[in-house]
Amino acid sequence: MCHAGGSVPDGVEGGCTRALKRFETIVVGCGGMGSSISYHLSRRGARTLVLERFKLNHENGSSHGRTKIIRTAYFEDPRYVRLAKRAFQLWAALEKETGRRLLEVTGGLMIGKPDSPIVVGSLRSAREYSLPHSLLDTKELAERFPAFAASDSERALYEPNAGILFPDRCIEAHKEMAEEEGTKFHFGERVTRWEAGRSLVTIHTEKETYAAEKVIFAAGPWNRSLLPDLRLPLECERQVIFWFRPSTRGELFNPRRMPIFGWEVGRGRIFYGIPNTGHGVKAARHHGGRVSPPDEVDRRVTAEDEAPVRTFLKSRLPLLDRTPISSMTCTYTNTPDGHFVIDRHPRHRNIWLVSPCSGHGFKFSSVIGEIVSELALRGFTRQDISLFSLARLGIT
Ligand SMILES: Cc1cc2nc3c(=O)[nH]c(=O)nc-3n(C[C@H](O)[C@H](O)[C@H](O)COP(=O)(O)OP(=O)(O)OC[C@H]3O[C@@H](n4cnc5c(N)ncnc54)[C@H](O)[C@@H]3O)c2cc1C
Question: Quick one: DSSP state of residue 20?
């Protein structure tokens, strides 16, 4: 089977005895990031191959889970605000291009004590970037959004520019548009190792060997074992997500009445949720899961996983029935500071590394695809990505 790429003659890069299938760019991984990177590379005319070890929209990585939150008043750091704004624009453009509904705007609530990082940080981002927002006390919250029961000492930062992304559709849309431009996707093909030559990188999979001028590793927690020379401080953390049905007043939980939310119930202890888009209300704890190698994540969901979410719902969303109707496991790829990694390999100029997770990356996948395609093809990007450098992690 021969693909869009040409072939590299014997011996050009390291003495192979047969012609390799050659591409301008190879993307390793087709989750939220790999699919978007492939789309933006294809729009810039790069002959691209995407290698994914599982099938499209599988459930072994980070990008599944039916729905993801998108928000702008970023409590983690105001430097994400510009990226969030661009991400919104690109999702809207992709919706227009494909005619598919990828995003539903619901508004967003970040709830906690007035001095909690989630409220203080969201407010800071909203003020710094003049984002539309309002700060609600308990009474105002209950009046506007009766699904929520905050305590008297809590406040809620409401922002209208927040909502829900449908990740499977987003990934499919990026992939199909890239395919239309000639990008090749190989599913069920695991990359096993690579070698960097003077101008080409050789990629070995379980089935084949390829050559590319540039390679982008977007393999989530597997980036660590694919790039062992970098000793990346990435941790794979197991997460469990649940869906619940309302026990009464179901209309309060649909996306027109209920915003997405994050709720800091104690210092650094955050729960989040997404209104009912047909599968029930999604709710989960942010972090607090076991760390394990990505191929050894325990996929069984236990009563122990359920307990903290049930306790949270009992006091904060009391109209929900606390017996989950479904659940799923998923993994965060955490960096020590919670920020992403988007950078060039320090010793190989034609290799790029992308790991935007730590539990909040999906919303940015549209803009990260744009950034990485600019970096790989032109060597620079118009966005400020200094927050995501390898150097800040001591990797030089
Ligand atoms: C429970 C949960 C909830 C989340 N909620 C949100 C949210 O509400 N909003 C938000 O913005 N973000 C959210 N995130 C974070 C977001 O989902 C991630 O940041 C994002 O999906 C990461 O995408 P990725 O492409 O980097 O990783 P992945 O989706 O893990 O993709 C990596 C891909 O690489 C492939 N791969 C790995 N090794 C190889 C190999 N050797 N050869 C070929 N392919 C390989 C994998 O199979 C995988 O498909 C959440 C994450 C989780 C787990």
Answer: E
Give the residue-averaged pLDDT of 310-323.
Answer: 98
Distance, in Å, from the CA atom of 136 to the CA atom of 157, rounded to the nearest integer, reads 6
Which residues touch 99 (CB under 8 Å, ≥6 apart)?
A: none
SS3 category, 370: helix
Euclidean distance between CA atoms 317 and 227, whole angstroms: 43
Torsion of CA 339, 342, 344, 350, to 10 degrees: 160
Q: Does domain 7-61+168-232+337-393 have CATH number 3.50.50.60?
A: yes
**pLDDT of 40 higher than 60:** yes
Mutate to test the pocket of ligand 1, among 26, 68, 80 (most ligand atoms within 8 A of CB): 68
pLDDT at 20 over 50: yes
Residue tagged 């539309």 (tokens): 132
Residue 358 main-chain phi, psi, to 5 deg = 50, 30
CATH of 106-164+235-334, one of 3.40.1280.10, 3.90.1750.20, 3.30.9.10, 3.40.190.10: 3.30.9.10
- Kindly give the distance from the C-alpha atom of residue 97 to the centroid of ligand 1, in angstroms, as a whole number: 24
Note whether 345 and 352 are within 8 A (CB). yes
For residue 17, pLDDT over 50 is answered with no
